[in-house]
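Box S1 | Example of a co-folding query
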Amino acid sequence: MAIYSDETASFIWRNGEIIPWEQATIHVNAVGHASVAGVFEGIKAYWNDAVRQLYVFRLREHMERFLRSIRIVRYGFHYSLEELQQAVLELLRANDYRRDVYIRPYVFQKGIVRELLQAEPGRPTELVIDSWPFDSCRDMSRALHVCVSSWTRISDSCLPPRLKCFSNYHNGRLAAMEAAVSGYDWPVLLDDRGKLTEGPGACLLLVRDGKVIAPPVTSGILESITRDTVFTLLQEALHVPLQEREVDRTELYVADEVFFVGTGWEIMPVASVDRLPVGEGKPGPIARAIAEAYRRVVTGRDGRHPEWRTPCLKQAPASGGPSGESLA
Ligand code: PMP
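Box S1 (continued) | Returned holo structure for 4'-deoxy-4'-aminopyridoxal-5'-phosphate
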């Protein structure tokens, strides 16, 4: 399921410099090392045409998570939280974006393929920040047909899902491949005890009896920033109760609504699980309402939580955005 456009940026940020995208090359023998040893983030910025501003959504929290991932893998790393945030803004300005954009910082230890298992803490690292245009306007009539994968989700004792590194994504790729050849849009994965974890690239939430249920952060999931945003919006904007607890596979079969949440997918409803329709087999009322609330807050059309939006362009108000409905 492709969600990215195939356009590229004009400029990329590499080790402190903005350089033309085409010049950001690496030796072919280093590709394996760069990907296996790569730790990354996925961030989005949203264009608000009414106020001519590009807002980076929860930049600080994404970079905090990036630093936590880097700590787990024990890389030597000298960029501060503030420097990382500034680098993203500098890159977005260099590319002169006036549309929604996806931002991908990644760090890896340098090495060639024969050094794959050499993992000294002091080994030099490269830091790269790429970006690309992203069409965010999700068609909310669309919902996915998912299956429960026969693959088990990686766990904290082998490849920790809390760590956002490229290697972890092989687990999701195996599941996505299996789902595709079996005629499904996307998989969800269970842990080794049969409890629900997440899908490749997004967390999963359920609705049962008017309550939103979420597997906890100890259930083999990434500590998702969208999940956290949705929790806040559910309570503040929709007044829907929330329960974080372990979820059984069969709860997916009897849920009123199921939807994915993540930076890339935003809010993505599920139509069926293992061919059993979820609710009426189309996006449910809570998923639709949360998708609308999310869209309004990320673009700054809803002025609440200005601390979540970092304005990128200098001429616009520095407060994090307008407030009130009139700017929609
Ligand atoms: N789980 C996985 C495995 C992911 O790759 C993502 C996307 N980053 C998420 C969950 C959602 O996390 P976030 O809301 O922070 O994008």
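The radius of gyration is 20 Å. Confidence is low (pLDDT under 50) at residues 320-328.
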